[in-house]
Amino acid sequence: MDIKLTNGKKTIIRSKEQYDANPLHFKARGFTPVGQESTEVKKATDKVVQLKPKKKKNVKKTKKKD
After folding, report:
1. pLDDT tens-digit profile of 10-43?
2. Smallest Cα–Cα separation from 2: which of 21, 18, 15, 19?
């Protein structure tokens, strides 16, 4: 007997014996049986952070003088 597991994006099919032997393995990777998954979807925020321009280094000061 096979069982369908999903993590929201991907659906896999494994044997029931394999799932029963390692339920924590599948739970740690985010897989739950189809029909038991939570349908909570995070919404993107409209908050945008402006990045500061990168400071330019003066090449003349950083070079070694002979």
Report:
1. 999 999 999 999 999 999 998 999 887 555 666 7
2. 15
